């Protein structure tokens, strides 16, 4: 392979693995750029191959299908988001007041949904899977823990699911696109909800 | 037509309209009984025709398709629900304290979702339509009005959408079926949410 700075695979397995990882990263970055520029509906395997300077076969071997590519794109940002709230800098990460962490959690999630809501919605189409997904479970565990640390009593499991449902991609896209409610208003409303729920 | 008490159409248009209305009502009642007994997935146009003692052609002329039948089934109960909160007896209907009306609204909605959640979910599959549906808009107007009457300040439009998202069929079915949270717990959690949001 000579195009766009991808060296030909070296002879050792370690090099091949490193190449594959770079390759995958390059494809995800390129795919994300396409989505940002023209929207998720316009992201095709052909277009990605052209933009990345790779063969279409390589793309299919890497992701299996367009659905697999979307899944990997989403998985990547969910992992970044999880890393942020589990071990990133405060107030999203550890070390801040639990109420401030809850506020930061919702604000960051809303930002993520507005940036890549279309990908989220594409993958979320199977509604039963939406709530059962590992990413949703990780967020739920985190929010429920913070509610407990903030001293909220009551049915924290259901309260957590209620609060998370307000950050759902389909709802947030309806609010921002159909109702023209901007991101700042949604973020302020999330903060208001957190304060109502956590005040003694 | 001689089967199951459906008289042959009389000669006047008025009688035909009355027959058609009775016919439709009979079909919806029968369809609902089938759903209650064996679930929405087992509801077929053939099965409905047999159970109602009518020809399959009549069923298709009436509803167009299975999707049309589900839509009519849902529409029917949404209208009943709307009638209940707009002009039914208190505390769901007018005349009670706004906080009590909010509590009753959620409890009744949760009951409705657990009774016919599968139909709701079948129709809700197009997520963008879910929030834009007239039934959702009517509920949103009602909840926002009650929050205002209860003296809640803040962004009532977004707060209303957040509260309604906790009553969403897909979420409630996930809570009751996957997480085994029973209806009483969900109803109590709704009441708890209403009280947290409305306390001064």
Automatic annotation (TrEMBL), chains A, B:
Residues 44-63 bind DNA. The keyword Transport does not apply. Transmembrane segments: none annotated. Keywords: DNA-binding. It comes from the Bacteria. The keyword DNA-binding applies. GO terms for molecular function: DNA-binding transcription factor activity; transcription cis-regulatory region binding. Residues 21-81 form the HTH tetR-type domain. This is Transcriptional regulator. The lineage of its organism: Bacteria, Bacillati, Actinomycetota, Actinomycetes, Micrococcales.
């Amino acid at each position: 392979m000579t195009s766009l700075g991808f060296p030909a695979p070296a002879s050792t397995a370690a090099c091949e693995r490193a190449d594959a990882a770079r390759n995958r990263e390059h494809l995800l970055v390129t795919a994300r750029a396409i989505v940002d520029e023209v929207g998720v509906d316009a992201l095709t395997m052909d277009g990605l191959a052209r933009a990345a300077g790779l063969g279409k076969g390589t793309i299919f071997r890497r992701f299996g299908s367009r659905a697999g590519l979307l899944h990997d794109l989403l998985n990547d940002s969910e992992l970044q988001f999880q890393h942020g709230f589990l071990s990133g800098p405060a107030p999203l990460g550890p070390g801040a007041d639990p109420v401030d962490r809850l506020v930061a959690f919702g604000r960051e999630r809303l930002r993520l949904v507005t940036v890549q809501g279309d990908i989220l919605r594409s993958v979320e189409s199977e509604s039963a899977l939406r709530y059962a997904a590992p990413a949703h479970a990780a967020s739920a565990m985190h929010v429920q823990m913070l509610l407990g640390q903030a001293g909220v009593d009551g049915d924290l499991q259901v309260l957590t699911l209620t609060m998370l449902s307000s950050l759902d991609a389909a709802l947030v896209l309806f609010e921002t696109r159909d109702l023209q409610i901007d991101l700042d208003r949604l973020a302020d409303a999330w903060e208001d909800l957190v304060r109502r729920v956590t005040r003694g």
